[in-house]
Amino acid sequence: GNSVTQMEGPVTLSEEAFLTINCTYTATGYPSLFWYVQYPGEGLQLLLKATKADDKGSNKGFEATYRKETTSFHLEKGSVQVSDSAVYFCALSALRGTGNQFYFGTGTSLTVIP
Amino acid sequence: KAGVTQTPRYLIKTRGQQVTLSCSPISGHRSVSWYQQTPGQGLQFLFEYFSETQRNKGNFPGRFSGRQFSNSRSEMNVSTLELGDSALYLCASSLDLGRANTEAFFGQGTRLTVV
Predict the structure, then answer these.
(1) CA distance B27 to chain A (A)
(2) What is the average pLDDT score of chain A?
């Protein structure tokens, strides 16, 4: 079956620290991988995506590489800011029937302190 | 262009009542999915509609139902509400989730509280 496992939170970092949030997946077929971010009281916003092996998604200083050999899609940022405080969700999209379905990890809460 | 719009943003209902939530997708998007988000279970898939047809359904009881109209707007209904139905209900729209690389765009959600 399809599933996503991401590192437990919460994560607390100082401003300008390096961020890694681990994400591994199990999937049948060839999924696409995504990172979504959720700010308090809001819905999910797409942060980045990768659609095939070795693709690197990037946005706003965040990066993640689709690693098929390790079934991973770890999120990284070299220098976090207070405004990056949010909950981050790793997700995969895989075919199911005639449509697709997203499978989400449990989310990792990040707090960045000045 | 306008994003995904969900109404209402907040709702308080009593056990046993029913509720209808609405979702207007991004213009041109024909696929609408619904998710339930709770602190304990995370994001759980409810169902997906495409061109007024339900294409996929998650593992929720029959009290949860939905539909999609010809303009792609979607509604979900929960009958005989239980306390455990309290959650943030998120709607997501996509051009066509029949393609694996298509991202979903989420609304801000409807916060349902059952008392």
Answers:
(1) 17
(2) 93
Q: Render pLDDT for B16-42 as a digit per residue (tens, 0 to 9).
A: 999 999 999 999 999 999 999 998 888
Distance CA(B36)–CA(B93), nearest Å, equals 15
Cβ-based contacts of B40 with chain A (< 8 Å): none
Instruction: List the single residue in A43, A96, A107 with the smallest CB-CB distance to B109.
Output: A43
Contacts of B100 in chain A (CB under 8 A): 29-32, 51, 93-95, 100
Find the closest chain A residue to B50 by CA distance: A99
The answer to whether the Cβ–Cβ distance between A99 and B48 falls below 8 Å is: yes
CA-to-CA separations, B65 to A75, B9, B73, B98, in angstroms, rounded: 35, 19, 15, 21
